[in-house]
């Protein structure tokens, strides 16, 4: 059994210690907001927070999450009221939408650490989160909006 805090609630799962956190979230706990993209921590679709830091859950073993606090897109704001979620809608960021939960989780970590990031800060922090539809300018605009209005 691996015990950790998930979206503010204690959780225990009975899985092998080498099971990726992504598959524990999606298959065992049925939290499907976190997406599988590449499986090698290169695209960012599976980004969650571990103790407040963005982590690629496809490459994070569940055993390494033991005793830690994990936040998924479902736990960021269950009712969609997080400033980034509102800004994402206002700026019409998603096209296919597949990468968006990972993008938002990466951006949330930035805004938690830096309430008023520059455009350069945003670009540097978001580097590595891939959007196959190419909505990068809208992503930047949404993060800037969330920083202003959040």
Compact overview of the structure:
The protein is of the alpha+beta class and 150 residues long. 37% of the residues lie in helices and 14% in strands. It has a five-stranded mixed sheet with strand order 2-1-5-3-4, with helices on both faces.
What keyword list fits this structure?
about 150 residues, alpha+beta, five-stranded mixed sheet, about 35% helix, globular
What do these coordinates show?
The chain has 150 residues and is α+β, with helices and mostly antiparallel strands. It is 37% helix and 14% strand. It has helices spanning 21-28, 73-76, 83-90, 100-113, 119-126, 136-149, and strands spanning 2-6, 9-13, 47-50, 53-56, 69-71. The protein has a 5-stranded mixed sheet, sandwiched between helices. A hairpin with a 2-residue loop joins strand 3 (47-50) and strand 4. The longest helix is centred in the last third of the chain and has 14 residues, at 100-113. The radius of gyration is 15 Å and the shape is globular. The model has no long low-confidence stretch (mean pLDDT 97).
């Amino acid at each position: 059994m691996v015990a950790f805090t998930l979206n503010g609630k204690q959780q225990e799962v009975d899985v092998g210690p080498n099971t990726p956190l992504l598959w524990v979230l999606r298959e065992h706990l049925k939290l499907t907001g976190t997406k599988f993209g590449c499986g090698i921590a290169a695209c960012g679709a599976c980004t969650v927070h571990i103790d407040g830091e963005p982590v690629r859950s496809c490459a994070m073993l569940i055993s390494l999450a033991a005793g830690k606090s994990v936040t998924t897109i479902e736990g960021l704001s269950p009712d969609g009221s997080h400033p980034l979620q509102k800004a994402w809608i206002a700026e019409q960021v998603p096209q296919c939408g597949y990468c968006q939960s990972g993008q938002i989780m990466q951006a949330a970590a930035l805004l938690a650490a830096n309430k008023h990031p520059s455009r350069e800060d945003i670009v540097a922090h978001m580097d590595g989160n891939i959007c196959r539809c190419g909505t990068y300018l809208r992503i930047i605009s949404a993060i800037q909006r969330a920083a202003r209005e959040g």
